[in-house]
Amino acid sequence: MQWKRKVSSVRDRAIGPRADRAQDGIGPGQQSAAASSSPNAPKRNKPKDVSPPPAQVAASARPPADPEHDRLLRAPVIVLSPPRSGSTLLRVVLNSHPELHAPHETHVRRLAVKLTTPPVAHSMEGFGHNLADIEHMLWDRMLHRELVRSGKKTVVEKTPSNVFVWQRLATCWPDARFIFLMRHPMSIATSWHEGDPAKRPMAKAVPHTLKYMVAPEEARAGLPGLTLRYEELTSDPETQTRRICEFLGLEWEPGMVTYGKKDHGPYVKGIGDWKEKIKTGTIQQGRPLPKPEEIAEELREMCRVWGYLPADAPAHS
Length: 317
Fold this sequence. Notes:
Layout: H1 2-15, H2 18-21, H3 33-37, H4 54-59, H5 67-70, E1 77-80, H6 87-95, E2 100-101, H7 118-127, H8 131-150, E3 154-158, H9 166-172, E4 177-182, H10 185-194, H11 202-222, E5 226-229, H12 230-235, H13 237-248, H14 276-279, H15 300-305
Parallel strand pairs: 1-3, 1-4, 2-3, 4-5
């Protein structure tokens, strides 16, 4: 038993007597809550962030080096649209198809990764991954998990702020299919304003929503895809859902126009439309289109580009 005494003696010299280590279930190298909160307790250094800044990460985005193993999703569907353009309605319409899983807004592009030590940064470099590669794998894994749990074949990602990163999304998933949803620009601004009139006056609503219109228009110019109009989806849902299915290579599903018969989860503010209209479960006509003289001057050019105002329509006097 002499060897046990020697081992115990060495251990005690290294990490202190057993009695000092047994309290509160504290293991070697750990402190109790009381000790760590003591004014005289040594401060531990927080992990450092050796990651490049977000703009540099985004600029370094590139297609997957090994798509077969770097991506779990196959041909995801990405909806690009401004807020208050009917994207939640389109989501539940798509989610009513037996092969499409369209969850609430995921904001997946906001999922970021940090490298906290130089060794882990060197390790990832050794694998051939930059930070954008790792974030793309995280995005893909998160959406794939939801898809697998749904039992369906194709995921639909719908988050309005995605319009600002359409290039990166197309880079992350080179096989993605894009659907561009538009609505009368003045109706978008007015609807966003009505969501909180006190905090969203029209003077703020117009420039805010205009940014969300310019970005998807740039995407439409740079990507192939299907363009839908909210007004046509609500006035003739069968024709428009047939167009969607044809674009995606799917059989048309009549249940897409009666989305209320399916369970789409709760409608929660912040991750989609939560108003009573969407909760009715029926596709309803949109509001009447604004008259030309009712369109804010800042939105008139976008109305022309999107075909809601003739090209030769005069400006406000």
